[in-house]
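Dear Dr. H.,

I hope your travels went smoothly. While you were away I took the liberty of generating a structure for the chain from your last submission, since the lab meeting agenda had it listed for discussion. I wanted you to have the full record in hand beforehand rather than looking at slides cold. The sequence, exactly as received, is reproduced here:
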Amino acid sequence: MPILPIDTGRYGTPEMLKVFEEEARVQKLLDVEAALAWAHAEVGDIPKKDAEKIVANASVKYVKVERVKAIEKEIKHDLASLVRALSEQCGSSGAYVHLGATSYDIVDTANALQLKDALDIIVKHLTCLKSILQEKAGKYKETVMMGRTHGQHALPITLGFKFAVWGYEVNRHIQRLSDCRERVVAGKMSGAVGTQAGLGEHATQIQELVMKRLGIRAAEISTQIVQRDRYAEFVCILSMVATSLENFATEIRELQRPEIAELFESFEAEKQVGSSTMPHKRNPEICERVCGLARIVRSLTVPAFEDMVTWHERDLTQSSTERFVLPESCILTDYILSLLTTVVANLRVDEQRMLQNIGLTQGRTMSESVMMALTRKGVNRQEAHELLRKLALKSEAEKRHFKETLLSDKFVHSKLTEAEIDEALNPKSYLGTAVKQAEAFAKA
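The corresponding predicted structure, in token form, is as follows:
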């Protein structure tokens, strides 16, 4: 009976759920056992006909999950249960199943196979988000909006510039995942405590053959387990990805507030319900879901770090935690990535409101522009700053437009003409390289 929301189908994309569903996990374990038998045959340790029998039967078509569980209920060991269930299907050839291996040769190599698939999916979806951000950056490269610092109006930027900032952050995550792939997607066939003693004289060759057949690399060295710094790094990167997604979602949530009302999640007006009691509500619920689940992903870094600590060559403390940490971090990260990609692709933009919001401070947000105009006229920068600070405060106190305050100041008016003041107060004339930066990302 499903209990957790991933199991009930509430969270997770079908593509990622398929990687971690129970039957898929058992199949990965069987794939490793099959590769091991094949490698033994290749080096002459076992007859090829027996290896072929093992390979042919190493499938959930024959080795049923239910049978593995029934055996485990009796013998209390999950991997040994799989070995017995596979051996049952192989007749006399079953004597060669799991030859020279330890449980975590199979488990850790199966982990690598699953993480390889998960990495491919997440990178693909990050690349999709990056592509959408590039399209948005190009489309809105000249759409002027207020840039905010400390939650206050600062200087004008463009919406395309904001999308470019997000897009380069996404691109760095793509690079991080690419860089960590070699360390994360690593299997092993090293036997108990890692010495390969049980694999015999061809041990090194067997490990190489197994990994080659499975399409992954072998760890340079391992104990009875692959060292968990690999998984900790991966979970940390996923946590960073999730946190970036939360950052983007938080910005959209803020900009959807009625007091700002510049960006909006799409809303299915025909059927979607915003509130069970307030019919008018259009909540940014998808972005809020992204933010909430990102917290879960970040929380998984703690057990991932703690799993790096092992008694001697191996203990069992990692086993139970990783049953949660690895699937959940991949499933939830991919899920919120999918959610936010949809949000960004379908964002509603109110460009008129952006311009209205710029005018809320009556031109005072352009004080730096005026200051720079004065410096070009030979005014000391520090003196210009102090003067404009006082004039901005005066404008606010008197509730007068900043232009009027500037024109009424004899010093400013002696240095700048009304046309020059108008130019300095025009948000579109003080965007620096924002448009070019957005355009550069759009074409990257």
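Two observations you may find useful: The chain is about 65% helix and 5% strand. Residues 141 and 436 are 8 Å apart (CA to CA).

With kind regards,
E. W.
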